[in-house]
Backbone:
């Protein structure tokens, strides 16, 4: 499977500068692509467009040759957002959050180090790092073919970071999921990615 | 762990308030016949031991009349507030989550109902349905949902833009499912507040259309009827005719208000920190 962006351009409605200009990129299943650029160069915007949260002004996003918008129901391209506290409904218990995903396996839940006692809590009763694991688990449902990780480990300590990245690498290799990694940390990208893409060179 | 805490005493208080309201409602039903008994040998008596709230110009016991009236008002208020709130919830949700055409339709309907003076529409509906309990309840229910529906619509529009709702849609949840599972928990506190605020409105409007002669008949004394009837006698120094029913109406509304607030706080303790 291949996820590709064909000459996409994007500008937010508030009239700021053109964020993405004729961007062409692709990623294949099983590939781990690192996305680099300084702040404000459209890394998150790029993820949002690839996952279908925003419509590009020009160009199209294709998954397996078909436009991404033609996939109904569970979207095969899932994005993990930078801020977990905005990504979960504050009024749902965490076990409900896991149920939102497309049949999240116990292996994923264990692998991310989610403790059973957290499941009965509300999102405001766990820490940001603990919450982020739930967001990652939720995005790893059965139907996921591509995973876009937008700065997902920024708020974690180094031990937890390595635990989560090791798990994610083994999981995407096992299931042949394409992984897009956005990070400011050069070392992390060196360690995790198989290929790198700099938005400035586009 | 502490065995007794604020939450537990609040639950106790809540149970007490609800049973008080229920007791008044039931007691009013039991005093129904006594409230109608006229006895001209005891008319215009000020409060005394046998008639704690006094008697009126036809010798009816004001205590029985006040209780029956409160019971009637509580039932009308609760019923209409509940129906209006349900109406507002469904229409607000429908407007905000079913696309532009549905939104236009509901907003138009809200503007239409709000544009006509409440009392005029109330009188028309109540009169068309043959007045009485049914006319009043349907009339008030059909006119009081608008502002709450507008509030719910706004809230849903805002929720739709939030990240977790967008994520839920990408996780394959349909519009209806998201509305029910993700949005309803956010809307319930709003609905409860709306219900509580609607209650005194409903009672007052019931009183005013009854006063105009398009509501309840005078054998069904709701507080509004009692108060408007006592107006004439107030100037003659018969203060007890208005004081007790009026004061108890205020107490009932206050009890309702506190109950609503406590339910809200028990269901959503985090709201204090927001």
Residues:
């Amino acid at each position: 499977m291949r996820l590709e962006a064909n000459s996409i351009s994007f500008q937010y409605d508030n009239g700021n500068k053109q964020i993405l200009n004729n961007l062409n990129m692709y990623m294949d299943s099983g590939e781990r692509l690192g996305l680099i650029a300084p702040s404000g160069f459209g890394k998150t915007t790029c993820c949002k467009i690839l996952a279908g949260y925003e419509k590009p002004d020009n160009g199209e996003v294709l998954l397996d040759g078909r436009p991404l918008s033609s996939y109904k129901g569970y979207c095969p391209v899932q994005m993990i957002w930078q801020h977990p506290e905005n990504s979960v409904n504050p009024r749902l218990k965490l076990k409900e959050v896991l149920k939102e995903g497309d049949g999240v396996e116990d292996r994923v839940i264990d692998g991310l180090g989610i403790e059973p006692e957290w499941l009965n809590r509300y999102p405001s009763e766990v820490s940001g790092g603990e919450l982020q694991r739930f967001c990652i688990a939720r995005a790893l449902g059965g139907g996921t073919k591509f995973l876009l990780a937008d700065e997902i480990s920024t708020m974690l300590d180094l031990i937890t970071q390595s635990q989560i990245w090791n798990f994610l690498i083994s999981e995407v290799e096992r299931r042949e999921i394409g992984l897009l990694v956005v990070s400011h940390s050069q070392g992390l990208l060196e360690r995790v990615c198989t290929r790198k893409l700099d938005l400035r060179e586009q | 762990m502490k065995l007794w805490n604020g939450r537990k005493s609040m639950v106790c208080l809540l149970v007490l308030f609800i049973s008080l309201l229920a007791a008044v409602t039931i007691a009013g039903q039991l005093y129904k016949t006594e409230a109608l008994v006229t006895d001209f040998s005891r008319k215009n008596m000020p409060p005394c031991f046998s008639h704690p709230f006094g008697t009126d110009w036809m010798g009816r016991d004001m205590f029985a009349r006040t209780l029956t009236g409160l019971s009637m008002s509580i039932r009308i208020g609760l019923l209409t507030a509940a129906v209006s709130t349900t109406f507002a919830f469904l229409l607000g949700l429908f407007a905000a989550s079913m696309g532009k055409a549905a939104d236009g339709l509901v907003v138009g309907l809200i503007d239409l109902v709000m544009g006509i003076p409440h009392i005029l529409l109330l009188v028309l509906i109540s009169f068309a349905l043959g007045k009485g309990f049914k006319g009043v309840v349907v009339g008030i229910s059909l006119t009081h949902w608008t502002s709450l529906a507008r509030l719910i619509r706004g809230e849903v529009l805002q929720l739709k833009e939030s990240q977790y709702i967008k994520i839920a849609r990408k996780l394959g949840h349909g519009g209806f499912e998201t509305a029910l599972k993700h949005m309803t928990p956010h809307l319930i506190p709003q609905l409860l507040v709306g219900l509580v605020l609607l209650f005194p409105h409903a009672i007052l409007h019931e009183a005013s259309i009854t006063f105009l002669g398009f509501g309840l008949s005078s054998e069904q004394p709701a507080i509004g009827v009692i108060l408007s009837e006592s107006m004439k006698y107030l100037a003659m120094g018969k203060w007890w005719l208005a004081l007790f029913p009026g004061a108890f109406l205020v107490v009932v509304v206050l009890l309702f208000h506190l109950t609503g607030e406590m339910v809200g706080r028990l269901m959503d303790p985090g709201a204090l920190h927001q």
